[in-house]
Amino acid sequence: MRVKKAIIPAAGLGTRFLPATKAQPKEMLPILDVPTLQIIVEEAVNSGITDILIITGRNKHSIENHFDRNIELEMVLENNKKFELLDEIKKSSNLANIYYFRQSIPLGLGNAIGCGRSFVGNEPFAVLLGDDIVYSDKPATKQLIDAFEKHNSSILGVQKVPIEDINKYGSIDGDFLENRTYKVKSTVEKPNPEDAPSNVAILGRYIITPKIFDILDKQKPGVGGEIQLTDALNTLADLEDVYAYEFEGDRYDVGSKLGFLKATIRAGLLKEDIREEFIEHLKDIVENEK
Ligand code: UTP
């Protein structure tokens, strides 16, 4: 079965980025001139996804506005013959069929995904975390969809991280098969480095079978008192085959200050019209820091 639907959870409180996230969603913080969430929606669309459910919450209205048309602005840009900008702002309202579900209390990522049950129905679906972006030649979600089509089972997007950082992620216990693929035996959310089954971390991209919803319905809170998707995936791995795929690409957690800064610098270096001057500026700063 082809993967056509995606859930993007974006209802978290973004406490790591306060005070910026007091009244605005962290998922709308721009990486240069494009909101994080648009970069993620574009990855999904470039991977063949046609229908996207964004899980929202209080203070998240700007998300809906961004993916809707802004007729007044369109008229102004048209009258001023700013056609390039006009195309740019129309683009974000035409990317995919986008739906919204409001998670009334941010009880955790597992709870957010559970909110997508009736949207997903009985199909495999993609999950892209609303604060993780990946720069890669082939979209990370497309890499996972290709792995799904090979194995017809849930695929967790993973990469190796330094073992001292594994307590920020879900860690997998798995057997390496070949071609970047692991067969997953179990998963643990945010383990201490000394207890972690491996340094192979689950990083914000998943393809999951609909069986997960029955599990999430019964899932008890785990680490941090939150309903954890990793715990539900651990149960899923007991019931059916689950694989992990080490996707290619540079991934940034833009919900963290350092990740946001790194992604912004990366985006600046990719922008032709400012690139040279920006590099000179970075060199100057680094020189003066020494
Ligand atoms: P995070 O754990 O990174 O988001 O969840 P958070 O809770 O907002 O982060 P901090 O620690 O307070 O800064 C990963 C993704 O899942 C969403 C978040 O919006 C983020 O995009 N999420 C998390 C939900 O949609 N609902 C939740 O209950 C929790």
Provide a descriptive summary of the structure in words.
It contains 11 helices and 13 strands. The relative contact order is 0.16. Helix 3 (71-79) packs antiparallel against helix 4 (83-91). The radius of gyration is 20 Å and the shape is globular. With 290 residues, it is of the alpha/beta class. The chain folds into 2 domains: 5-253, Spore Coat Polysaccharide Biosynthesis Protein SpsA, Chain A, CATH 3.90.550.10; 256-290, no CATH class. The strands form 3 sheets. The chain has a 5-stranded mixed beta barrel with strand order 8-11-9-10-12. A two-stranded antiparallel ribbon has the order 2-3. The structure holds uridine 5'-triphosphate (UTP). Uridine 5'-triphosphate binds next to helix 5.
Kindly report the spatial arrangement of strands forming the biggest sheet: 8-11-9-10-12
Largest sheet: 5 strands, mixed, barrel
Oligomer: single chain
Task: Tell me, briefly, the overall form.
Answer: globular
Flag low-confidence runs. none
- Helix content range: 25-40%
Counted up, domains total: 2
Number of helices: 11
By CATH reckoning, the class of the largest domain would read Alpha Beta
Strand-residue fraction?
A: 15-25%
Please state the second-level CATH architecture of the largest domain: Alpha-Beta Complex
Number of strands: 13
Cα Rg: 20 Å
The H/E string reads EEEHEHHHEHHEEHEEEEHHEEHH
Structural class: alpha/beta
Hetero groups in this structure are: uridine 5'-triphosphate
